[in-house]
Design brief:
Layout lengths: L7 H4 L6 H4 L12 H35 L6 H14 L3 H5 L10 H17 L3 E5 L3 E5 L2 E14 L2 E15 L3 E8 L2
Antiparallel strand pairs: 1-3, 2-3, 3-4, 4-5
Length: 185
């Protein structure tokens, strides 16, 4: 009902409660439940850890492969590596890593090693093989490497040394390899 005209009440605007005048407050997004937040953090952390682990394993494999791969960068380097593997370490598998893929003609060197082994057994001593500088004569993708093998042993307390000139044929394909070896005359 309206107040009568000219009354004090009619001059005052009608009052409303504050909740009627204001727009409803915007709804805030519902907070993520704590479980999902923790699960998301754990998932991201686990994924980062796995990525770092796999990256570390890959880097380790590459570094290990580079460190253990035989050096076949030059004719003299490959002959020295071959001689060390074949005569010093007496490891045929490692020596094969230095030879041509179709095999190497090294029957004379195999005979020398066999003779050294039999003499070691016969005289109950150790025989060592060493060498000095290697002389390389290169022609394109092939090279001849000359070296003097020094064969030393102590037999009955007496030092004995034999020097033998050897010649090795090497070839460059992807890298240098020993393809043949014989005693030089």
């Amino acid at each position: 009902m309206q107040p009568p005209a000219g009354s004090q009440v009619s001059r005052v605007p009608a009052q409303r409660s504050p909740s009627d005048q204001l727009a409803p407050p915007p709804l805030a997004p519902a907070p993520i439940p704590p479980r999902r937040r923790v699960r998301t953090i754990l998932t991201v952390t686990a994924a980062a850890f796995v990525a770092l682990l796999l990256g570390g394993l890959a880097a380790g494999y590459v570094l290990y492969d580079r460190a253990t791969a035989p050096d076949r960068s030059a004719p003299d380097v490959v002959v020295s590596g071959y001689l060390h593997a074949f005569l010093v370490d007496r490891n045929d598998a490692r020596a094969a890593a230095f030879t041509c893929r179709d095999g190497a003609s090294v029957a004379e060197l195999q005979a020398l090693r066999g003779d050294l082994v039999s003499r070691e057994e016969r005289f109950s001593t150790d025989i060592s093989v060493s060498w000095g500088s290697l002389l390389v004569q290169s022609e394109g993708d092939q090279a001849v490497v000359e070296v003097e093998l020094v064969i030393s042993a102590y037999v009955d307390g007496i030092a004995q040394t034999d020097r033998q000139p050897w010649q090795f044929n090497t070839r460059l394909t992807d890298d240098w390899r020993v393809c043949g070896g014989r005693r030089a005359t």
